[in-house]
């Protein structure tokens, strides 16, 4: 690949037709990290035609053959981790240890779908007539347009590519312009497996232009989007207008319940690590921490102390716990959330300020006594800001936890099996994790309800939207 991160269409790396590029930056320094090619309409049309051609070849391959390509791509990702992880840190900001974990996670996702694709079973239906055979055949839906985010540019893309390829579909991936280079290396690994031309395509450019072209295109049969709820609703409406299947993994505002019988040390350790992972730029990040009144003071002391001791710095430093936010917009958003909360008489327990004047660094922040009228109580912060709240009884806690239209993830800490069961039933959420943060494994469902979207991007459920169930009835009578 050239110095500019190029498009990948029909098995070849190329510049956009216009030659236009966009800059992307190192969030730790504010310096330009590179350029990425911009896809124009002609490039997108080429990608659609390539995906259609690739689909016809790919669907004809057996599940075992498709599995072999995904396994080989996983092996190449692991071999190249030492090259890919630093690129991910440079363009996205996450600590190098987390970048390595993301490369490994992407390889695991490919491996899991490689196996799951071999299990897309049909079925035989018992017939009412002796001379009639009834069967269901599972077939790939067709070329897929996928839109992946900048916060986990490798892992989220791997979910979309893995499910599509394992099902027998081809894919056009619209990658994030902020973090293009590491993702291009992931696609490069697929290219180096010898996968047929057109099966995987990668484009970058103006998001609105790309989505408005790809989603209505007659050759595209399915949409997969990960991103904000506001954009997701627009794309879902566009997909619906053209009768396209869609998987939507959207925003969250995850409630976390800390009961008086919880292991407070463990809860504080895990919540600190998980909340400030990737600088809080995680859709499943715990945001509203609802703590039972009887242990509120003790828990607050523990988690504030841990947050204040986190080492914030350049992600390339092995000692860094939290890197910079991905772009200046996120720093401005955090400042606005904190200022608005304080204006609504909230208290700042720790943090709340930008760090330095170079790069996009922001302090790990905890605020308390935040009224429901504050913006951060209703909008996804998507950054390193945690809200502490008190609750006294189960009913009031459930009311607050389910108050918002989001429903992606919820968490709870308790030693009581009864309380855990009650929480798992009461939460209006696609995922509930109790006494740990066990979400996002390749083999487990990953998706939300309400305004957090629909469909799953993990587990066997992730294959369903890429498959068509064809019913075949066959009479044996003369």
Report on the biggest sheet.
7 strands, mixed
Radius of gyration: 23 Å
Strand content: 15-25%
Average pLDDT over all residues: 97
CATH architecture of the largest domain: 3-Layer(aba) Sandwich
State the share of residues found in helices, binned by percent: 25-40%
What count of structural domains?
2
CATH homologous superfamily (4th level) name of the largest domain: Aldehyde Dehydrogenase, Chain A, domain 1
Termini separation:
61 Å
Backbone structural class: alpha/beta
Task: Going across the biggest sheet, name each strand in turn.
Answer: 14-15-16-13-12-17-18
Number of β-strand runs: 20
Please give the oligomerization state of what you see. single chain
The third-level CATH topology of the largest domain is Aldehyde Dehydrogenase, Chain A, domain 1
Q: Regions with pLDDT < 50 over 5+ consecutive residues?
A: none
Number of helical regions: 13
Structural shape: globular
Query: Regarding CATH, which class of the largest domain?
Result: Alpha Beta
């Amino acid at each position: 690949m050239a110095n500019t991160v190029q498009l990948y269409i029909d098995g070849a790396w190329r510049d956009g037709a216009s030659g236009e590029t966009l800059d992307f930056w190192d969030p730790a320094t504010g310096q330009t990290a590179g350029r990425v090619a911009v896809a124009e309409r002609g490039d997108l049309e080429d990608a659609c035609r390539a995906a259609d051609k690739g689909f016809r070849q790919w669907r004809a391959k057996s599940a075992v053959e498709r599995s072999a390509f995904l396994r080989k791509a996983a092996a190449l990702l692991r071999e190249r981790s030492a090259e890919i992880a630093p690129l991910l840190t440079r363009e996205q900001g996450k600590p190098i240890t987390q970048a390595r974990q993301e490369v490994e996670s992407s390889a695991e996702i490919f491996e899991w779908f490689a196996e799951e694709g071999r299990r897309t079973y049909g079925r035989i239906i018992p017939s009412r007539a002796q001379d009639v055979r009834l069967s269901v055949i599972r077939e790939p839906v067709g070329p897929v347009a996928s839109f992946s985010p900048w916060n986990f540019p490798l892992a989220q893309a791997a979910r979309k590519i893995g499910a599509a390829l394992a099902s027998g579909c081809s894919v056009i991936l619209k990658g994030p312009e902020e973090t293009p280079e590491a993702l291009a290396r992931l696609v490069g690994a697929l290219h180096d497996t010898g996968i047929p031309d057109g099966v995987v395509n990668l484009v970058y450019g103006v998001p609105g232009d790309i989505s408005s072209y790809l989603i209505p295109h007659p050759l595209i049969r399915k949409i997969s989007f990960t991103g904000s709820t506001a954009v997701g609703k627009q794309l879902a409406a566009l997909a619906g207008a053209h009768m396209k299947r869609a998987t939507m993994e959207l925003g969250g505002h995850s409630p976390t319940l800390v009961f008086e019988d919880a292991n407070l040390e463990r809860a504080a350790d895990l919540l600190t690590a998980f909340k400030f992972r990737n600088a809080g730029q995680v859709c499943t990040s715990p945001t509203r921490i609802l703590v039972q009144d009887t242990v509120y003071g003790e828990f607050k002391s523990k988690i504030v102390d841990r947050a204040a001791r986190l080492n914030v710095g350049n992600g390339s430093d092995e000692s860094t716990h939290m890197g910079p936010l991905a772009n200046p917009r996120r720093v401005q958003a955090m400042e606005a959330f904190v200022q608005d909360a304080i204006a609504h008489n909230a208290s700042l327990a720790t943090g709340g300020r930008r760090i330095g004047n170079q790069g996009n660094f922001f302090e790990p922040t905890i605020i308390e006594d935040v009224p429901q009228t504050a913006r951060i109580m209703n909008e996804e912060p998507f950054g390193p800001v945690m809200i502490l709240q008190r609750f006294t009884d189960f009913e009031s806690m459930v009311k607050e936890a389910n108050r918002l239209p989001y429903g992606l993830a919820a968490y709870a800490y308790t030693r009581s099996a009864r309380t855990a069961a009650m929480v798992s039933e009461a939460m209006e959420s696609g995922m509930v994790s109790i006494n740990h943060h066990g979400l996002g494994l390749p083999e487990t469902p990953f998706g939300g309800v309400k305004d957090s979207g629909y469909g799953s991007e993990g587990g066997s459920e992730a294959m369903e939207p890429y498959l068509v169930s064809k019913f075949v009835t066959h009479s044996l009578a003369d």
